[in-house]
Amino acid sequence: MNRVLEICANSVQSAVAAQAGGAHRIELCQNLEQGGITPSYGLIRQVRALLTIPVFVLIRPRPGNFVYDAAELAIMQADIQLCQELGCAGVVLGVLDAEDYVDVACCRELVALAHPLQVTFHRAFDSCANQQQALEAIIGMGCQRLLTSGGQPSATAGITQLAALVEQAAGRISIMPGAGITPETLPALVRGTSALEFHSSAKRLLPTVPGALPELNTPLLETDDALVARMVKVLEESS
Question: Which Pfam families match (predicted)?
Answer without folding.
Answer: CutC (PF03932)
